Fold this protein.
Amino acid sequence: MKKNTEKIETPPECLRRVKEAIERAKEDRLHAKRSRRKAAIRAAAVFLICLTVAIPNVSAEAAEAMSNLPIVGGFFSVITVRDYHYIDDRYSADVHIPGLESDSEAAQSVNSKIMAIAEEWVEEFQSAREDEWVRAEIKVDYEILSTAPEYFTLKLMAYQCSGSGYEQDYYYTIRISDEKEMTLSDLFPEGADFITPISENIREQMHRRMKEDPDKTFWVDLQEDDPIKEFEFEKISEDQQFYVDRKGRIVIAFNEGDVAPMYMGCVKFTVPKKVTDNIK
């Protein structure tokens, strides 16, 4: 790889424009939110132009310059606001708590929710350490999802293991145009029934997945005498976990044990646009 990158030179004008965009972005961070937003757009635009010129190989100098560009995925910078680490012969914790660098109401709301969840997991871990017969492990981390251009989504992942493992994911989506924290209902006209068609499509996908793979199990359309009838999936909730992918499709997310046995882990269903486009 080193040999290949040394042979190919990124056009000087392209590299110069990348560096200039970076400097403008840094300066504009001192101004109002609107100015920062425009700086991010300029830098991202130059970045994409240069990729079309330099892909599949770029010089080492260009690669270093590109690494300094604003975070791709929205107009919000994500930082780690707190780390918590612990390890001994029976316990281990690896916690990275994210925060959105923005003074918007939506960002502050998301930060507050994430901090509360992370602290709860840490407190549970610390309580487990008081029991000398227990072995425990927790991991908390985050990911910026590649979503539709008009949305920014931050995913928080929390994993706990004490005998058996359990993962829980949380999705926080903000609409970039007005910096609004979104719920699933916000994606549809007020009063529209989005729950029924999306739920029906998910049930269809569950049956299809089980038919294609006998090792997959979902709690859907169970018999009345089934011992797990009470856990049967009937419909999504109004505050269902979700995000919008880069194709504009809604992805519905469930945590372990929500709609399937724990061994299935966290499961997701991408709802076709032909289903959601007809919701009015």
